[in-house]
Structures are given as C-alpha cells and as structure tokens.
Amino acid sequence: MAKKEYAFYPGCSSQSKASASNYLTSVNAMCDKLDVTITEIPDWNCCGASIGYAEGGELPRLALSARNFALAETHLPGKEMVATCAACWLAQREVKERLDHSEVLLKETNEALAAAGLQYQGTTPVRHMVEVLIEDLGYDALKQPVVKPLEGIKFAGYVGCQTNRPFGIAGESFENPVYLDKLVETVGGEAVPYDQKVTCCGGALAFSEPEKSQKQIRDIVESAYDHGAEMIVTPCPLCQANVEIYQSEINKKQGTKFSMPVLYYSQLMTVAYGGSAKEAGLDGQLIKATKLEEIAKK
Amino acid sequence: MNAPATPKYAAYVCSGCGIGDKLDVPTLEKIAQKEGKMALVKSHPFLCNAEGVQMIRDDIANDGVTHLCIAACSRRAKAEAFSFPTAAVSRANLREGVIWVVAEGSEHDEVRQEMAEDYVRMGCAEVKKMKVPGGNVKESSSKKILVVGGGLSGMTAALAAAEAGYEVALVEKSGALGGFATNLWKRVPFAAPYADAQPVGAAELAAKVSANPKIKVHLNSTVTETAGAPGRFAVKIAQESGSVAEELCGSIVQATGFTTYDINKLPELGGGQANVVDQAGLEALAKAADGGPIKRADGKEVKSVVFVQCAGQRDTTGQHLAYCSGHCCATSIKQATYFKDQNPDIDTVVMYQDLRVPGMGEDFYRSAQDKGVIFTKGKASKVTGGDGCKVDFKDLILNEGASIDADLVVLATGQVPNAGVNLDEWTATVTAAESGDEAAKIKKGELQKISVLNLDYRQGPDMPQFKYGFADSHFICFPYETRRTGIYAAGPTRRPMDMLQATEDATGAALKAIQAVENVEKGRAAHPRAWDLSFPTARLEGCTQCKRCTVECPFGAIDEDEKRFPKFNEERCRRCGTCMGACPVRVISFENYSCDTVGMQIKAVNIPDEFEEKPRILILACENDAYPALDMAGIQRLSYSAFVRAIPVRCLGSVNTIWITDALNSGYDGVMMMGCKKGDDYQCHFVKGSEMAFYRMSKIDDTLKQLGLETERVQTLEVAITDNARVVKLINEYVDQIKEIGLSPMKGFG
Amino acid sequence: MTTANQTAIAKYKNSFLKEVEANVEEGHWVRMCMQCGVCAGSCPLGNAWAHPPQELFMMIRAGKREEVLASDSMWMCTSCYNCIVRCPRKLPITHIMHGLANYAHRLGIAPKGQPTRETATLFWNNLIKKGRVNELTFSLALYFKDGFVQGIKNALNMQAVGLGLVKARRLNPMEILGGHGVKDQAGFKAMIEKARQIEDRKKGFAK
Fold first, then answer.
1. CATH 1.20.1050.140, applies to A4-129
2. In chain B, what are the helix, strand and coil shares in percent, each to the nearest 5?
3. Does the N-terminal or the C-terminal CB of chain B have fewer CB atoms within 10 Å?
4. pLDDT digit string, tens, across residues A168-202
5. Nearest Cβ partner for B397 among C31, C32, C58
6. What ipTM was predicted for this assembly?
C-alpha cells in the first residue's frame, strides 16, 4: 500500500498537556502502526470551536479556519488536511464550503488574510481522521495489524454530534451511524447497541449550562450501562471530556455510581495493534480503562 | 341464442391441486350423476391444462353439452381457461372453498367431504337454472360523445375524445368557450420548475376546440332534454335564440364547473366592503393591471396585501362550506407572486391555517417564499375594509391576537359545484306537486331551470348529488363512475379541484365515455361487470306495480311505461340485481342469475338432522369484496368452519328475502350476509346495493319471529376485500354462537 | 447608548425580517421556514427554549424585534446540528441561531449575564489573545467571572476534576505563565482585526 501522507491539524485540545493530549498520543501511535504520516501544519491556530460565534461573528471565524488552510497550502502543498478533533474538522469544512460558494465572503476573507500575508486558495480538502481510516485505508487494512484483539470488552460507540452532523461520514445515517461500531468490531471488541449513540453531550454548554448538560451526559452513560457496555468510545475530544469528567459531578449530585471509562477509537486501535498503555495514552484517563490496560500489558 | 333445443348437462371434477388427496373424488362424481342429475360426469387430474380444457370443448362440440358444472377451484381462478361462451357454466369451489380452508387432519375428513359434496350438489343445481345470455346488441347505436360545459374540463374532454376519433357535441351556456379560466391573469405552473405563474392558455385551447372538425360547438346553448340511454341518448339543445338542435349521442361528459362561494356571505371577513375582494376579484384587478402595478377599484396602487385562506371554507359552524376546495392555497400563492414579480417591495402576506398545496405545489410555495412572500399561520377573526384595511387574527404559532394593515385584502373563498338539481329535493317536490300542491308545481319549474341534463329519467333530471352538492362519483373505488351509466362528471362539478387536476379528470372522463359507447355497441354492461351480456327481464304478468324496482335501482335504469309497469333500459343497467332483490313477487331475473339459480343452490344442500349436531350456515357473499376475501383466506390457508356453505352474489342488493326464508325453512341454522361498506364512504360497487340489503334485512326480524326463530339467525355484515383474516374470525365466532343458541328447530320440514 | 442598535432600528423600521436577512449570518433563510416544528422537537435542550427556532422565525416575520433579540432562546443552542439535518426545508438553523445570538450580542441587547453569552465571550477573547485556546486561563476566567469569592467556590467545586486532569497530564498548571500560541502573533492579530473591521462595516457595528 502506498504510504499515506497528510497535513495534520491537531487543534488546541490535543496539544501537549491539554485536555485531549492522550488523543494525540494515541493517534501518533496508531498512525505509526498503520504507516500513515501526519505532518503538523506549521503555526496553525484555533478554529473558533462551536462557541466562538457569539463574540467572533462570521468573518473573523472564517478568517481563523481560512488561515489554517492557507498555511497548509503554503507549507504542505498537495496534501489533504486531516483533523482529529470533531469541532476543528467541522469548522474547517463549514468554512471551506462557505468560501467555495460565496465570492463575496471569499474576497473579504482573503482581504483579512492578506493582513497576515496569506491567501486562501481552496485547493485543500479537509478530512476527519475517521474518514482517512475507513475511506482511504478501509476496514480490511485496519484489521491487518491487529495483534491483540480486544476480545471480551463491550463498548458503547458514542458518535455524538459533530462528526455525524451536518456533514457526517459518507454513507452513514444521521440517526444511526455504524462506523464506530464497525471500528470496534474491526479491533476485536464487541459493540453494544444502545439508544444514545448520537445524543448531544451538551457541548460547550457544559460550562455555561452545567445542569442541562449533565442531564444529557447522564442519559448517555446510563444507557451505555443499561445495554451492558463496559466502556464508551468516541471520536470527539469534547464528547470524551464531557462524558468522562462530569461522571464524578453527577455521582456527587445525583448519587449515581458512574465509573465508565471513555476512550478514543485511536486508543483502542493502538492497544489492539500491540502498543503499550502509554503509547495508547491510557495514563491520561481520569476513569481508568483497566481491562484495556490489561490487554496492553499482555 | 346458441342454446340448442335440448339441454345436456355435464359435470367435471378436477382432482388436481390436492383436491384428489383431500377428497373422495369418485364419490363426488357419483353425487353429480345421481343427485345432480348430470348426464355426463368426468374427472381429470389437471382440468385447467390444455388437455383438460380440450376435453370439455370436445364434449361441447361433439356431445352436445350445453350446461356444465366445473368442480375445481374458485370461479375467480382460471376464468380464461374455463370460459366456454356457448355454454352455461357453474363453478363448485372445492379448492379455495373447501380443501384450503377446512382444518388439516383425518378428524376433519368427514366434514370436509360433506362440504365438497354440497358444493357439487349446489353447482349442479345452479347450472340447471342458467341460460347463456344473448347480449343486448343494438343495431344502430351512436358513438358520438356529448360534452356539457365549455370550460377547461369540457374543452379538454372534447379534445381528448375527438383526438381518439370520436365525434363530439360540445354545449356551452355562454357565448364563448373558456369558462372560468378566461377570468384568470395567469395560472399556477403545471411543470418543472414549478417556480412562476404561467400564461393561462384558455384561448389557445378554445381555438383548438373550435378548429377540430370532429367537434361541433353549440354556444349560448343549454340541454333541455336528454332521453334514452347510453348509445341512444336523444339530446335537445336549445339556443338562446329559441332554436332547438337535436343530437343523438352515445355517452355524456358533464363538465359544468363551479361558482365561487358568495363573498357577501362573509361580512365578518369584510365581504361586501371596499378593497376586500375574492380570488376572482383579484384576478380581475391583475388583468386590468396587465403586468403593471395592481391597483384597487379606487385607483390606488396596492403596496400591501393580505390573503386570507379558508375564507368561508372548512367551516365547522354549519354556516359556510364545510370542505376544503383544494386549489385556493396554490391560487393565493400565485396571486401573491403577481405582486412580488411586479414589485418585490410590496408587502405580501398569506395567512393560512394549514397550507395545502397538493402535487408539486410545495415547490411553488417555496418559490413564493424565496420571492419574499410572508406566510403567517393564523386564523383571521375580522377583516375591516375601506381605505386602510385591517386584518385581525390569531397567530397560531405564537398563540396570541395580532393584526395587520393592508391596502387590499383577498379572501380565498371556495368552489361551489354547478351540478344541477338535487334529486332529494326534486323527489320531494315532484311528490308534492303530484298531490296537487301549487307551490310545489312552481318550484318544480324552478328546479327544472337549473337542471344541467334534463334527463328524462324516472328518478329525476340530473345525476344524483353527493355530500355538499357535488355531482355523483364513486370517489373511493372508481372516481369516474356515477350512478347514471354512460354519464360521467369531470372537473370541479365532481369534486373541488385545481386546473391541472381538472385536466386529468376530463381526460379520464373522456376515456370512460368512449368505453361506454364501445360497451353498448357490444351489448355489454358497463363497469364493474363490463363483460356481462346478461340483462334483467321482468315477467310483467306477475308484476304488482309496487315500484320498488324503479325506485331502488341505484342507476335509474328502470322507468315506468304508460301502464305503470317497469320499463327496463338495458344500456343504463349495471347488472347488479338490486331490482331482483327488491321484487316481492320475484318476477325479475337475469338469464344466468335469478331467484332460482341461487334458490336451487340453497335447497340442494344436504341438511343433517339435528341429532348429528352439524349446523349448516348459509353465506351470501358479495362477489366483489366478500367472496374474494373468503378465497384469500383459503389462499393463505386460514381455516374456518366446515359447516358453512358460501354462495357468491352479484351485490348484496340482489339478495331477495325469499332466499333467507327458504334457507331457514329448509333447516339452515343461520345466514350470514356479507356485503361492502355502506354509508357516505361506501365501497359498494353498485353504490346503494349493500345499503339496500341492510335496510331490507333490518325488517326481517318480524319474519324470523313468525317462524319462531331467534333474530341472531340472520346476520348482515360489512366485509372488505382485505378482510381475509377477519372473515375467518367472523365465521368461527358465528358458528360458536349458533351452537350456543342451538340448532334450528325447522330441520326436517324443508 | 448603542448607536448601532438605534441605527438598525431606523434603517429597517418596518421590516425586522429584512434586517435579519441583511445582518444575521444565514438570515436570508428565515423566510423559507414552513413552520413544521421538527427543529423544536429535535433539539436536545428543546424544553429550555422559551421560543424554539420555528417560533423565532415566525416572530421575525411578525416584526417582533425586541422579543427576538432580547430572548435567551438561541443561547440554548449546543451546536449539535440535529435541527439542520432534520429540517425538511434545509434551513441551516444552527447557524441562524448562532447568527441571531451574535447579532443580539453585538447590538448589546442580548440578555445580560446570560452564562453562554459570557462563556462565549471569554472563550473568544482567550483564543484571539494568542491564536490558540489556553484551557487553564479559560477555566480560571470562567470560575472567576462572577467575582472572586464565587470563583474560589467554583474552583474548589471542580478541584478534584482539575487535579485529576493535572495528574493525567491533561491540564497544565504552567500554562498560566503563557502556554500555547501561534508564532506569528502580529500577523494573526492583524488578520482578526481586519476581519472584524469588514464585518462591522457590513453589519453596521462600525463606530
């Protein structure tokens, strides 16, 4: 298989010692095992996330993502951009779509970029890492490197919102996407069906509307438990953080006894591919994924 | 006509499809011979294959067989294989009716065999009373099609018929073709992209009609008399000038359109006030503007307009129209774009409760939104007209009262059909007039003036009307069919509709009119028994002139002659047999369907004595829905009691009470009558047949009491064609009920 | 007083819909709503909206400017995009909600102290300071947004979580001294400044 190379946009949460640093650790290990090269886009900036709109408005937000494209086009020409964070990917895709369809916005955005000596060309597509895995490599190729199948672990595939809507992964339904379940099965785990697969975790409102968000999170974790899951797996850093971090809060306030590990697909794959617990970023879990650590140790 | 002087009877028992495995075929043959008195009896392992059919054909050709009973599958199966036009044919249903519905297992062998034997007895008894119908061929039938109404629907129907090669006479009341469409500035789009209002095209259509050599247009004319029947309608067409033309026509399309609901009946919505118009009024303003700014009657340019939907429609108070006219939402959308296309700055609000845009109207709706038409979900409570109009309304989304100011308010009022005389009112008036009521005599004259067709029918001058005064239509099952054979309603006179629907409707009506004249030429019935060559005849010497047949015929087929005897107009008849069911002295019959063909079947059944504890239940099942449902139960291998004996009837309306009393007298323990749904949303193929049956059976209780029988012994049921599972349940429950009541005390007297 | 608001009122005196179409992100879609209510039924926080999107659209068409812009409804949007994918008319509802919130915020009529509004402002200011989000300073700013005492309480409440994250090396206490950022600070800031300028001019926020 020809070696795959991408311009990598890690996003703020994946930086070292940030909330999703373990995501980055495992993505690096996973890509290594799959012989995929990801080169960080030099000097990338924040995408504005899903909460940037209120103060940021439209054009400054367009400028943020356009700058990332412009940097990739300048420094890593010809390479597709790949993002691991759901919000980063979505922001880049939305901005690309809007700039490619509006000459006015394109002109104004480039006027702003010019102030930083940059220009948006619109030549670089943006992909989510999951798209790279299932479309560019395919499930068969993803199965090949498996040396430690995750046998006997039941996962609730928590797709959440932003890799699923409004664009989604090609061929998946909005109401019941199955790619995450298939990834789990590819690495030997068991994907349990449950009814909160695409429920919103509250997103950025976890900060501003904690009670409303925690109700969402409770529904998700509870349903995972009810359907026999032992761990939750997700492609989104904000989903991961919200669903993992607030379990203790919910326990404290509502007397539940949640302790469900929440992992990234890349962590599952790294372990299945023979990576160590450290390479899989399992040390970054607030709620320890003991069963996974045991497999990694074998 | 082909029947030789001496009848010869034959029975054929098929042992295929498992019949031979489940039944004792030699015994069935013996019964056909001994009890059925069949001269020739044969069995065959595969009767419907080429060899089996050839065997029968040979017997007819070489052996002089004239009447045959085929004991095989249901009469609804293999109809083409078992079609022998020169012979009378009955069918004993051993497959769907016996082996597929009687429960499996040897413990049921006896009852299964008894059931089959009875069906063979019944088939033999029936065929002996049948004759081969000769048909009703008329030498000189007209194939000309009369179209009444020269609007969009009428013109479309006339052109469709003419282009199919038929002569057409088109009668239009006014001085020009075009109808309501000529009042329009533009019409809603009929084709993709459904984005903009389109030129109406009425003038072009009118020119096409006028230029067509097969169409004779009668302008300024009305139909003053329609006598006769399909194939021979004698139509008098009176011109305004007083001259009268006569046309001989084969069938009729009535496309007499609609009138707008009178806006003056809506004072609370500003009806009658300045600058409050209906949709027709807005069309007039738009035509006057001719593409420029639309101006009000006072000459002021309209800068803001509100369309109030459902004005006087979908009314629940009983004051206005109770129905939705279907076209008005799209029409208001179209009219709103008149303003927006001319000047996008004009404030244009469509106030709706439920926006209903059938067909591709959704795209048109979206296009109008895109043009900036504001759609407000609200119910107008009060419209004030005048120089500055105001619409008070309840906002149904925000759930609060609000108001909008506008220069002009347009009320979307509905369509009122021009369907002629209401026959109920007519009958009451005529009855009163006949008993000397002077006011009624005057009223009769008035009614006659609004009549469209002036039919010379005993049942009145126009088509029956439906709810809300629309012309007759079997709107659920066969929308084009009416109760006046050969006369078809098209366009908004049949039901409320828009122009595109009217175009399609008119084309369909033209096809039905063509079918009607072709059927008449072949002497056949019209839908739903279009192949049927039989027709009813009456033995007048036994007739008591009770008029039940003339009154109850759903199709107005029977007039009265000078001596007050029933006069059958075969071409109007649909062969349902409702007249036969109605006749108290049983003088009406068809060659192949009569009181005897059914009565003899009933009597042929072997009734076990009461000590055997085997009840016998007669099922009289409508051949259109209930009998197919019974067959379907068999096809699905649902089992029902082997104590029932089912006889298909043309319509429940054809069931004569004599059959019921005969059955009970001969010791049947119960009778189930299964017909189609009746009432406003009827599914009866003959419209009123099942209703008549229910009405007649409601009176049978007295008879039962005279016989000393429980009223439960006769059941009248509505069964739909999809009721295959339900019909099984009904039968089994009824058998249980009969067992509970006990067997009939009449056994052994029959 | 916010002159931007007064200018907008004067300019669009009769049509709030036109104002929204001109000034709100994706606002030109509002006219296309057909009032089915699927958006309202699809929103995870649906019950928290005083006026669900469909109703906001109707209010815009009915000219209820003050009620719409001062509403906290659109601040309930979690950006889950469920409404977008389910809308039969394909309205980009999420973006319109964001656009309405931004417009109300910039005109200064969005509800004061609305927690999402405050969080969003803090987030944006945090990110444009260096080009990347500093999660620690963002969190601290959030805890202290209601004053020092409440801030300590908030921080203590979440202390276990914070310490957990630090232990898991997913929160860096040293970030308070600087942390991540883009290298081309000058270019980044000039770009944001320029974008803001154009937007303000277009939407009437220019001073």
1. yes
2. 35, 20, 45
3. N
4. 999 999 999 999 999 999 999 999 999 999 999 99
5. C58
6. 0.95
